[in-house]
Design brief:
With 377 residues, this protein is α/β, with parallel strands linked by helices. Helix content is 40%, strand content 13%. It has helices spanning 16-20, 30-37, 56-66, 78-88, 100-112, 127-135, 152-162, 182-189, 247-252, 264-275, 277-300, 321-333, 357-376; strands spanning 43-44, 95-98, 118-122, 139-143, 166-170, 197-201, 223-228, 241-244, 304-305, 312-316, 336-337, 349-353.
Length: 377
Amino acid sequence: MTNPKPLPHTDPRLTKLAQSLPATVPFVGPETQERHRGAPFAARLGANENGFGPSPRAIAAMAAAAAEAWKYGDPESYDLRAALAAHHGVAMENVLIGEGIDGLLGDTVRLFIEPGDAVVTSAGAYPTFSYHVTGYGGEIHQVPYDGDHENPDALMTRAAEVGAKLVYLANPDNPMGSWHTGARIVRALEALPEGALLVLDEAYLECAPTGTAADLAIDDPRVLRFRTFSKAYGLAGARIGYVLGQANLIAAFHRVRNHFGVNRIAQAGALAALADQDWLRHVQDQIRAARARIGEIAGANDLMALPSATNFVTIDCGADGGFARRVLAELLARDIFVRMPFVAPQDRCIRISCGPEPELSAFEAALPDALAAARKA
């Protein structure tokens, strides 16, 4: 039996749109990098994961649920939706569970975007949203950051200019860690053009200062708000998140979503994590301490840590993107996994996840030599 030949990129069985797409992914995982380099990383500080871990109650709940992994997960995620509705003071009809924010963003784009439809985002913002838009043939229009912040006013202005159907904004922001007050988001929303929908990514909201959440009515038809259990709750590997919005908007997701996409182990873990708010507060304290520690490490090496409302800190390397990429490469060569923003001028930075002290100490030990090697190169 012969091995089949791989499909050429222009195989006629592919759609024309699929043929036009690059075979790329938004992020190359640390496991892939470890396989290529033939060695594990000593510190995993590049994926915005919560190295402090999930609630012990969540771990126990997932372990118990593993014995019933032969069962499909509840396609309605009823218990988790009920708990989230009570947590946020809304109706169950205002909550939908999905395979992390990434999966929910894909469903959102599938619902609203056809080939040629205009979408507005920021140049250098979270790339997975644009990945989905490209995959459905949408036309992406970008606006630059204002300093190291996304610019809500410019996003709305551009949306009006191009007749955008979707406007993407993350608050707090990835990759810079910056944030706007909720009041600023509310003011900007007043300029959202008629017929457009704000895709408000709030993945890091549990890491942010009080006042970051926008005070918006749950039945506001202009916005969908995306939350996750991946960050402060420490369940990135379980792939579970949710979207909050007007009941009619939420109901539309049932037309396209993968109804059995959220497994029962993830549902059990998220339900237990949500119930353990004491652990969440513990992790929030750990994140604040780690942000301060990363700031101290940066300062000791004459670098500047940018203010952060997330579970990572973006460090300005003080030069251009080429220098920051050399620093990144030298850290990787020293077994420290970190990442960096992709678009200038934010690509002058590297990004360090908050993590346990041993991993931050490994970063601290590697950074001076990495900087020296990058400068010499």
